[in-house]
Input
Amino acid sequence: MSYDRALTVFSPDGHLFQVEYAVEAVRKGTCAVGVRGKNLVVLAVEKKTTLKLQDPRTVRKIALLDDHVCMAFAGLNADARVLINKARIECQSHRLTVEDPVSIEYITRYIAGVQQKYTQSGGVRPFGISTLIIGFDSDKVPKLYQTDPSGIYSAWKANAIGRSSKTVREFLEKHYKEDMSDADSIKLSIKSLLEIVQTGAKNIEVSVMGPDSILRNLTAEEVEKIVTAIEAENAAETAAAGPSSSSA
Output
């Protein structure tokens, strides 16, 4: 029997192959990074180069779900669009019913629940995306969550999804510090993406959210300025390490 044909059938060694294939689709998607600082939370994503005649504003990897909740994704764009619409409807439904905005964990749990449902039903396939969800609740503490195609969700201080996410996550583990300042959080997110993005600032998009729960997208000039500063630092470190290694 071919166990990868049916979504709802386990293989003898306990695998659901369609879910694993969905995780593989995420690994082929462009990278997204989330970093939680002391007073803000950052999403940085790798943008695909747009075609010459294409409007770049229509190609978005970061989407607002509600005034205070934002999501980035890696994987299939069409799947993400459907999941974003479901999440937005749930946010508005929650406001209408409870007269309060959703908590970040609530909407993360909802998105993970939708993803899980699509691993257990016949006639459907799993969502081929992982998500990073950021935002602020009424306690004004930054939140960062991740979900994957199997329906698992978890909270993070910093994380990466998409292609080469393992390399980026290792970089984040090495350089992340508790209670980082706003500037350091933004810098770390861009610096981690530069580990795999060779084309520099033009293929990086950054959004930040502070305690006022307003999402701000950094301009191309702001990103370019930070990238230039990072490259100058790296060049200085290389120059400083050069003489000592040659004398050794």
